[in-house]
Amino acid sequence: MIQPRRGGQGFSNTNAARNKAPTALEQQAFQLIQQNRHQEALAIYNALIQQGTSSHLVYFNAAAITTLQGDRLGAIALLQTALEINPNHANSHFSLGNALQQEGQQEGAIHHYRQAIELDPTFAQAHNNLGIALQSLKNPEQALACLETAVELLPSDANSLFNLGNVLIDLNRTEQAIEAYERAAELGCQLPMLFNNLGNAFREIGRLEASQAAFERALKLDPQLPEAHWNSGLTLLLGGNYAQGWGEYEWRFRKTTNPTQAHAIPRQGGWCTHIPRAGEPLMVVSEQGLGDTLQFMRYVAHLRQQGLAVEFCAQTKLHGLIQASGIHPKPLSPEEASARSDLPWMPLLSLPHQLGVGPDNPLVQEPYINSTDSRVQSWRRKITPSAPALIGINWQGDPATERDEHMAGRSLALACLAPLAQLDNVQLVSLQKGFGCEQLDTCNFQHRFVSCQHEISQALDFLDCAAVVAQCDLIVTCDTVVAHLAAGMGKPTWLLLKAVPDWRWGLEGDSTFWYPSMRLFRQERPGDWHGVIERVCEQLRALNHN
What we know:
Elements: H1 24-34, H2 38-50, H3 56-68, H4 72-85, H5 90-102, H6 106-119, H7 124-136, H8 140-153, H9 158-170, H10 174-186, H11 192-204, H12 208-221, H13 226-238, H14 242-249, E1 281-285, H15 290-296, H16 298-305, E2 309-313, H17 319-324, H18 334-338, E3 345-347, H19 351-355, H20 373-382, E4 389-394, H21 399-402, H22 418-421, E5 426-430, H23 453-458, H24 462-471, E6 474-478, H25 481-488, E7 493-497, E8 518-522, H26 529-545
Parallel strand pairs: 1-2, 1-3, 4-5, 4-6, 6-7, 7-8
C-alpha cells in the first residue's frame, strides 16, 4: 500500500510562548515567505541564527524552507535546535517527526509525534502521521487507534480516511476499509492509489465489477500507474477475461512497490516482446514462486515441440524434476543464464500471454510432470499403506508469500484435516515441507500416517516428493506448490480454496482448464475451512460406497 504523508505544519509567525512580538527582521522574512521568496527569507533567518537569536520560530521556519529545498538532514538539525529553545512547540515536534520518518527513522518519528499530541491532543495530522509510522513498524492495531482519532478530530480530511482504509486492509477488515476509501473519494480525494486500493478491496470480497471500475478510475487519473494496471490484470484474470488480463499482467515488472523480479537478468539488451519463429533461439527465465514455475513450465516444452531452440533458466531445486519430466534436458541456473545475453529473453509467465492461453485455448492439458523410475520404485518399497486408499495432504504455504495481500488466508491448520483421518479405509501421508511440518509433532491422529512419514518429511528433493505423490490415490491440498506438482502429474488433486482465491482459480466452478485431474473445493464463507473439509469427506464417503 502507498500511504501519503503530510508535509510540515507550514510556517509560523506567532511566538506566543515568548509572549513577544516578532522582530522587524523576522516580520520581513515572513513577508518574503508569503511572497514565495524563500531563498531571501532563508538568508535573513541564517543571519539571525549567526547573531544568536533565541527565537525558536526562526529555526522552525528556516527548517521549513530547508525541507522544501530537499535538505532533510539540515532541517532536522534546525528543528532539534528549535526544540532545545522551546521544547513545548508542538509544530516543531510534528515537523521533526515528518523529517525523521522520511529518513526512515520511525522510532524517532513516533517519539516526536507523541510529543506533539501530548502538547496538543487535537492535532489531527499528528495522529494521522503517528498512525502511518506505527503501521510501518507492523503495529496495525495501534495505528488504527491513531487514525480513528485523526478522522474523529477532522472528519473532512480525506487523507486520514485513505490511511485508515489502508490499515483496515492490513487487519483484514475489508468491508470497513471500503467504507473509508469511499468516504475519502466522496470528500474529493483524487489520489490514483486510493482507487487502486479500493479496487483491491473490492476484489478481496469478490465484487469484480466494482473492482474493475475502481481501477479504471485510477487509470483515468494516472494512465501509467503500474499498480493499477497490474491489479486490474488480476481482477480480469480472476473473472476469466484472459484476453485483456494477460496484457495488464505484463505490468508486474514495472510496479513501484514490490515489482516482480525475474530470476536472472540479461547483462545487455532487453526482454523480447514476441516469441521467435521455429528454429530461432529463446531464453525463458523463471519468476515468482516454485508453483508458478511448475504450472507454466509446460509451455517451455510446448515451444520446444514447435521447433524453437529454447534455453530454460529455473530455480535450481527444480532442475532434477524439469529434466525427469522432459521439459528441458539441461536447465540453467540464474548464474549460467546471465552469461547468455546473446539470446532473446522472455519471462516464464509471459508465455501464456504470447501464446494466447485461456479456457478456450489451454494448449497443454495432458500430464507433463514425472519423477524418475528409480525414485518411484524406491518409495514404492518404503510406503506400505495399511488401508485401501492413500491420501497425500498438504495444508500450509510459505508464510512469507502469504504476507502478500493476494495470498493471505490460503492455508489452514493440520487440525482442520482431522475428519479425513476418521474415515474408514483411508491412510494419510504428509507432503508438507518446511513451514507447517511442526504441526505433525502435536497432531492427535499421527497413527493414521504411513510408517515412514518421518523419512518422507525429511526428503526435500522434488524428485522424491513427486515419487511419493505417485504412490497416492488422491492429493488433498491447499493452494501451494504441491497442488501444481500433483495435478501436473495427472494425479487426482482436490484443491482447497479460500472464498476469493488466487486469480488462476476463478470465482466459480469445481474444475479448472489448467488441470483436468483437479477438483476445486471452495469456501462458501471467508475462513470457513470446516465446511470445505466436510464436503471433501462427503465426497470421499461417496467414492468408498461406489
